[in-house]
Amino acid sequence: MAGNIKFGTDGWRGRIAEDYTFANVRRAAQGFARYLLENGKEGEWVVVGHDKRFHSENFAAAVAEVLAANGLRVYLTQGATPTPVISYAVVDKGAVGAVNITASHNPPTDNGFKVRDEHGGAIPPEGLQRIEALIPADESGVQRMPIAEAEEKGLVVRFDPAPAYIEHIKTLVDLEAIKNAGFKVLVEPMWGNGAGWFTRLLEGGKTVVEEIHNTRNPIFPEMKRPEPIPPNINVALEETVKRGADVLLITDGDADRLGVGDEHGEFVNQLRVYALLAYYLLEVRGQRGPIVKTISTTTLLNKLGERYGVPVYETGVGFKYVAPKMLEVNALIGGEESGGYAFRGNVPERDGILAGLYILDMMVKLNRKPAELVELIFEEVGPSYYDRIDVPFTGDRAPIEERVRNAKPETIGGLKVVGFRTIDGYQFMLEDGGWLLIRFSGTEPLLRIYCETTDGSRVDAILEDGLRIAGLK
Fold first, then answer.
1. Mean pLDDT throughout 324-335?
2. Whether 145 and 52 share a structural domain
3. Which tens digits make up the pLDDT trace of 412-437?
4. Is residue 167 part of a domain?
């Protein structure tokens, strides 16, 4: 049945050889092809790329076969390519969209199917719903042209999107200044698509770039999954200290997210990184424009918005909400709690490579290492402490939702509850300006409990109360 392919927060993901099969990938591709044709895109070009997971290149070829058979033309990447590079290729090639075979940060058992629009950004929820509705019930409804035939007819063209992306990046950040800074940069690409990119962009100067976990290994040794947060990055944090690196840059499996470790081997959480990136653009580069943030990210952005006189827009979780809002308001920056950040002048898509370069440029311009940058942002707009608990979930979610929705706690973590929002999940606003959010993941069978507070000693108590509110403790 078509119903077993559901697009969540960022496309469709499934377990390889169970629901994520060649037959179902072709069905999803047929649904996307019908969506494009329905919108008058016959004969137009679509970019198709993939990550380094099991069989990803073959799943990508299967997508190309379906799109070509439906009268669309395909630019197929020559190899594993970062998501932001695929997204930029959409704009560079004048394509009408993209399909990216990746499960991003999911466990090694999974793969995924991301779709992008003509801007290289996530397709809004109503578009995803339409694609779902157009997916055939079984493979009999799929049109398919063998890849060799499609290439022979010029309907599928293999290409290297890297050169155009690199030239574009040079217009956004001063690479020469970073090259000549004399940094020692450790890069953790998590066995994924980010391997080699910082080395390629920064070689030839005084700065030294070293990489770990930079080959293809779909089982992701030394980590549970290629998600740029502890404990997956613990080995990299240890290596940062051992090698005397000035900074650790971590890209997830498809390199659209960025994680940062400081010079002491301590993780700089993604909310703090988002605040640093916004401060960099507003203060260091003197730019102005709206900030778009999901409700699960930091209130430091609201404080920066107030300080610099720029509006802050809050959305549901996922770039399917962030990207359209960025386009609507011509945002300076957009981002989410997972470590995905997008920037004006680039495509409205998370870009872990550009975000990493901006962090390095900030280090150059302010002559501070990451731990010192965090101290600076706290001096400017106050402290932020954050954590998240992921609880595996099966069965009916309705009782949990009802329990949380009807909860009326007066305090959480010893702080007075001063508001309640249901933009995406259930968010309790706290008297110190912090919050507790309880929501179901849109990409995995997980209940996520997040919090932010100005008092680091309260984080555990807030999360514990979150578990109690959800009836899980």
1. 97
2. yes
3. 999 999 999 999 999 999 999 999 99
4. no
Q: Based on the domain organization, do 376 and 422 belong to the same domain?
A: no
At 261, which CATH number? 3.40.120.10
For residue 1, what pLDDT is reported? 41
Question: pLDDT tens across 22-54, in order?
Answer: 999 999 999 999 999 999 999 999 999 999 999
Each as own residue / partner, the long-range contacts of residues 174-178 (CB below 8 Å, 24 or more positions apart, any chain) are 174/361, 174/364, 175/201, 175/202, 175/357, 176/205, 177/361, 177/364, 178/202, 178/205, 178/207, 178/357, 178/360, 178/361, 178/364
Q: Can you say whether the dihedral through the CA atoms of 367, 371, 375, 381 is positive or negative? A: positive
- Categorise residue 378: left if φ over 0, alpha if ψ from -120 to 50, beta otherwise: alpha
Instruction: Using the 3D structure, point to which of 335, 352, 381 is the last residue of a domain.
Output: 381
Whether 111 and 249 map to the same domain: the answer is: no
Which structural domain range is residue 438 located in? Answer: 385-469
Q: Is the pLDDT of residue 204 over 50?
A: yes
pTM here is 0.94
At which of 161, 195, 229 does a domain end? Answer: 161
Q: For the chain, what is the domain count?
A: 3
**Which of 432, 435, 433 lies closest to 420 in space, CA to CA?**
435
Note whether 37 and 144 are same-domain residues.
yes
Residue 345: left if φ>0, alpha if ψ -120 to 50, beta else—which one? left
Q: Are 60 and 111 in contact (CB under 8 A)?
A: no
Helix (H) / strand (E) element for 416: namely strand 415-421
User: Which stretches of 63-188 are assigned E, i.e. beta strand?
Assistant: 73-77, 98-101, 110-116, 156-159, 184-188
The partner residues of 452 in beta bridges, in order of sequence, read 386, 435
pLDDT in tens, 151-186: 999 999 999 999 999 999 999 999 999 999 999 999
